[in-house]
Batch of 2 targets.
Target 1
Amino acid sequence: MIVSVSGKIESVGNGYIDILVSSGITYRVNSVSRFINSVIINDDKTSIEKSFECDQPEIKVYTSYQVREDSATLYGFGTQEERNFFEVLLSVSGVGPKTALNIIETYDLETLFDLIKSADYKTLSKVSGLGKKGSQKIVVELQGKIGEGQFEEMKLGRTYDEYNEIREALESLGYRGKELEGMLDKADKSFSAGDSDGEKVTVESVLQKILKEN
């Protein structure tokens, strides 16, 4: 799992930054325009397509590595909070990486929290590719789970790290789409049952249980 990338900006384009790391490898990171503009040390921003010399300062991007059947893509953000919220959006049924990125592109986190907590479907639905039904799903699944300026425990009743560990383990085993969501639902029930009984439940024990039952 790639959780961050640090290096010098090699080039930028429409919706991405190419970052050259110390090993000599260049990573292409998809991101939102406000972050891309914030890291460009250049007075002339009239053209988004740019290449840079080595005088660019080193930057750190918090990343989410998303693997799909036909692609493997890095998405990057200026803060861990944005990266975390991007991954939480992906837990909502029907929301993919492109739509999640569009949501964060359209509204900052504070505005998004307010829209979700106030159930403002109409404003949220203005995001490209989301629509009314998509915005309603986000509000229904995330409302009440957002605290003041931070996330409370999300899906699986656990932390983000545990949730992502479960998801990544299942994806590495070939689970995708509805089958993946079904396994995550089973994991949710296993966590909840263990917590209710006062048992110590771990990611490993839950994975073993749901894989054995499947």
Target 2
Amino acid sequence: MHILLIEDQEKLAENVRQFLSLEHYAVTVAHDGKEGFEKAMTQEVDLLILDVNLPGMDGYLICSMLRQHKKNMPILMLTARTKQQEIVHGLDLGADDYLGKPFDLDELLARVRALLRRKTADKQPQLTAGAIMLDTNTHEVRKNGKRIDLSPKEYALFEFLLRNKGTVQERPRIIEHVWGGRDDLMFSQTVDVHVAYLRRKLGKSVIETVPGKGYLVPSDPA
């Protein structure tokens, strides 16, 4: 799952990014309202965590404009403003939930999980490829009933490929969803290395390479 975090307090943003990354989420960070709005418009975002007080463009305006452009990702607003009318204003503009600052990271995680559950309510919680089963609720992967331990990035990569089973996923899209769109990884071997790790743990035929294009989990793996 790809989360976009728009937060101008760099230390807080980095703490949130690291915490959510350990929970198997890919997190892209923007510290400026205009930059964040551009990322929200151009990237595939599963959840937006949006601060209200931002330089360049405030969170209320970002939320309003995203909804006007029919962007329907869940939006969790972060705000030090605790007046009821300000909270209601954000919800009226299209935010799905809010969290007051300062906040506990475990509470943030609970809100994130709840919003993503709503988003994926119509999707199957268990994804399969042959004898392999991935449970999106427990973040467990099993092969023939035996649990397979994956690192957070291995899990995120495999979940992304499974959700798009049968279709080729190109490197830029994989990096966007699994590593938060980091430009420095575009020409590295990071994706290839993690695919190799997954093949070693799950079997060589689980993920296919499509030369010149990318990777896919076939619809009917051997």
